[in-house]
Amino acid sequence: MSREHPHLPRQRQPANLPSETSTNSFWHTEPSPLLTAHRSTRNLPQTADVVVIGSGMTGASVAHHLLATSHGADSTSGSKSGLNVVMLEAREACWGATGRNGGHCQPLLFESPHDPSIGHFELANFRALQTLIKEKDIDCEFVAQPGVRAIYSQHHLDEAESALGIMKHTAPELAQMMKLVTDKEGLAKYRIPTATGAVVTEVAARMWPYKFVSRILEDLLTATDLAGTFNLQTLTPVTALAQSQPTDDDPHHHQRTWTVTTPRGAITAHKVVLATNAYTSHLLPTFADLIVPCRGQMSALKPLPSLRGEGRLATSLGFLGDGLDDYLIQRPNERGGHLMFGGGRQHGPSIGVTDDSVLDRETARYLRTRLVQALGLPERRAERACVSCTNCQSDSQHCLLPPNTRTAEFTAAAEWSGIMGFSRDERPFVGPVPAHPGLYLSAGYTGHGMPNTWLCGKAVAVMVAKGFGSQDVEAVVDAASAATGLPMAYRLTEERVRKALLAEDVEALDWAEMERGAVAGRVEEVRGDVNDFLASLQR
């Protein structure tokens, strides 16, 4: 894909609402009957203590930790009880990024070597999910397994090696959970023979995210022992937020409320939580340059023979390199063994895109073919073409290429897109929104939400609950951080916003990375052609 350097606006336009229609995610092939088109009440409630906007992992966590009596009670003690919580969702429940991601939950413990609180938080998030899934016996295909971060460029490998060295001093307890692999035999063992190196950790998992969130929301809707009430309104996009004006008898704005406007009417709420990730700036325009939408693409691939049965993958995989950030898990053999593979952003429009109703053809083709080479599969040269041949659409008798030069590809059971929210400083924004009392945010996960969202949502829930009983915002945030381990780097503050806006634009950073990837890709393509030619001479 040819790329021109972006001519960036001084200020981005706010994000659009989620597309009314969307591509069909594999994770939505078994939708919850209870949640489909669910509206707890025929009419929109006129008032609420708390309105949560968004029904993905973050929104579900906020509601769960506000209302589920067996969770979060210790961290929200002393706050208002019997909260009336309303959740609003523009489309079906969990129809955004959580229902469209890769099902890949891997704490990246080495990516913040100078701030180990981030690695500890991601690890705690992983363990919280693991514990809750076991307690509730949630059938969401959660399987703990080693996580492999395959690295394909020397400078990324050097950075990883340096990070691991730093962590031996800043967080030895995390460093000992990882190892760097660079020898060819070791890389082949992890099914990544063409990688330059890899960071391997025993702490990772694969799961069906939609089924997890569905169960959390279903339990909230059917429980008889909630610490309040829960009302879910799907197919109800929020179009505007407005705060009431201060009054003379409330000089510190403690009693101000929010009006949440939808096409079905408006709700007046004391507190509002934005669990809106990529779409945040639609309701909070000042965040247009802080959280930028980014379209990603996913595929569910039917396993080739070498990946079936005992040949299946034993780890989850991430692929890191110049312009490369792909991710892969494999579903259980008894449920199809699909390879859930996503990425390939270097092949199509991505940054600034909020439309998940379309697929990029080049990206789709990349996702169907990349793993054959990346995993060093024996099917790399298909003897029989072919519905599995990328070079033409003819059958094997009429294929234009000699049998040993036909490139195999996977058959996709499903292909879809989804919208991520990229943070300008690459960290989620979590906490009360400055200068907007009663408004809270947890968003901007930059494609790394699974090891972050659940506890970020819990942190916001603690802030909201304690905020009813205290006007000391800093003390409330401190309490939430103590209860969850929320890193200081995630806190939403005026100072952080100012610093972030001085950093380079998300799109400019992404363009530079993708351009490096395009150059590396052309070199790799030429190298592959040469190797293929030399191999053909030996046959």
UniProtKB/TrEMBL annotation:
Q: Where is the composition biased (Polar residues)?
A: 13-27
Q: Which GO terms describe its cellular component?
A: cytoplasm
State the Pfam families in the record. DAO
Region annotation Disordered: where it falls in the sequence: 1-31
FAD dependent oxidoreductase domain: from which residue to which, for each copy? 49-461
InterPro entries referenced in this protein's UniProt entry, alphabetically:
FAD-dep_OxRdtase, FAD/NAD-bd_sf
Q: What is this protein called?
A: FAD dependent oxidoreductase domain-containing protein
Q: Which organism is it from?
A: Oleoguttula mirabilis
